[in-house]
Amino acid sequence: MAYFAFTEQPGQEFIFELTDPDKITHARNIIAGVEKEEVHVTGKIRKVQKPYNPKYSFHLEPASISFFSMAIEVCDANMDYVEEHLDEAGGAFLPGAHWCPWDSRVTREVTMP
């Protein structure tokens, strides 16, 4: 298990958990600059706050997380917008609770206490 942060403009940060060794390697390769194509984060949101990301009352389900280079518009939203409209997520807003912020980029690995 490892924790990473992705950022969105303007300077927002979202922490997520990865449990799959291949996905952990992929995230580390993004940070190292080795992976240059699939650098954006996508996954299913769960409407539960996690201690590793206390600013938000939702998190990304670790098993659902993957990385992409391009995605459809219907899953794109800013993290603060998702927080403000969380009660609508999973319906017409973010169908299936699938979130793919287009400007997300993994920026660092996070050490948890």
UniProtKB/TrEMBL annotation:
Q: Which residues form the BP74 N-terminal domain?
A: 2-112
| Protein origin, superkingdom | Bacteria
InterPro entries, from UniProt?
BP74_N (IPR056422), cAMP-inducible_BP74-like (IPR053344)
Q: Mind telling me what this protein is named?
A: Calmodulin-binding protein CaM-BP15
> What species is given as this protein's source?
Candidatus Protofrankia datiscae
